[in-house]
């Protein structure tokens, strides 16, 4: 079955960067887009961007452009999300999530989710 | 960016009630609209895709409708397991989530 296993919790200082990993299994890693979504404590879901693992092209939400980078290592079926210039507002659980399929409508929804990675930004 | 506005933000209901949550898009999005359920400490779970298609394994008491700018999620008869937070999400242009609707007992 599809599994997305994320890296563990991180504590970072303001101004630092964080890189969260997402290891995929149970399917062909390059066949479906990976998205990243975050959720601050007690707050709603916030979409950050997507990546096509086949060729590595990406699309980022306007809010995060210039600060987020999504990459992958196909040899180990792992996606990464790096966020730089962290502030306390970036304290959140970060989820990687895979779309349902490669064509309409399954390419539009987020079906498989990692367990989440808590990133805490504190001085 | 397309903004998604859900109403209400929170809702109190009882087991057996019929509940409707609305989601409005800031511009037409055809049926590029999905609904998710999230319970505390868990990742979201897909309920409805393409505005009205029920995801496999989701109970039939959940249904979705709408197109373009106005959408609804209906739970026909609330069960104890349904008390959670619900989010709509558009994928017409990038992706955006609504702010969520917390369904409480």
What does this structure look like?
The complex is a heterodimer of chains A (123) and B (105). In chain A, strands 2, 4, 5, 6, 9, 10 and 11 form a seven-stranded mixed beta sheet that branches. Chain A is globular. Chain A contains no helices and eleven strands. Helices cover 0% and strands 48% of the residues of chain A. Chain A has 123 residues and is mainly beta. By secondary structure, chain B is an all-beta fold. Chain B contains no helices and eleven strands. In chain B, strands 2, 4, 5, 6, 9, 10 and 11 form a seven-stranded mixed beta sheet that branches. In chain B, strands 1-3-8-7 form a four-stranded antiparallel beta sheet, with no helix packed on it. In chain B, a hairpin with a 6-residue loop joins β4 and β5. The chains are: A mainly beta (123), B mainly beta (105). Chain A binds chain B through residues 35, 37, 44-47, 50, 59, 61-62, 95, 97, 100, 104-106, 108-111, 113-116, and chain B through 1, 32, 34, 36, 38, 43-44, 46, 49-50, 53, 55, 87, 89, 91, 94-100.
Q: What topology emerges from the helices and strands here?
A:
The complex is a heterodimer of chains A (123) and B (105).
Chain A: E1 3-6, E2 10-12, E3 18-25, E4 34-39, E5 46-51, E6 58-60, E7 68-73, E8 78-83, E9 92-99, E10 110-113, E11 117-121
Parallel strand pairs in A: 2-11
Antiparallel strand pairs in A: 1-3, 3-8, 4-5, 4-9, 5-6, 7-8, 9-10, 9-11
Chain B: E1 4-7, E2 10-12, E3 19-25, E4 33-38, E5 45-49, E6 53-54, E7 62-67, E8 70-75, E9 85-90, E10 96-97, E11 101-104
Please indicate the percent range of residues of chain B in DSSP E strands (runs of 2 or more). over 45%
State Rg of chain B.
13 Å
In total, the number of strands of chain A is: 11
* Assembly status: heterodimer
Helix/strand/pairing category of chain B? mainly beta
Radius of gyration of chain A: 14 Å
Q: Can you give the mean pLDDT of chain A?
A: 96
Biggest β-sheet description of chain B: 7 strands, mixed
Mean pLDDT of chain B: 97
Question: Can you tell me the overall shape of chain A?
Answer: globular
Structural class of chain A: mainly beta
Share of helix of chain B, binned: under 10%
Helix count of chain B equals 0
Q: Unreliable runs of chain B, pLDDT <50, ≥5 residues?
A: none
**Overall 3D shape of chain B:** globular
Number of E-state strands of chain B: 11
- Terminal CA distance of chain B reads 34 Å
Low-confidence stretches of chain A: none
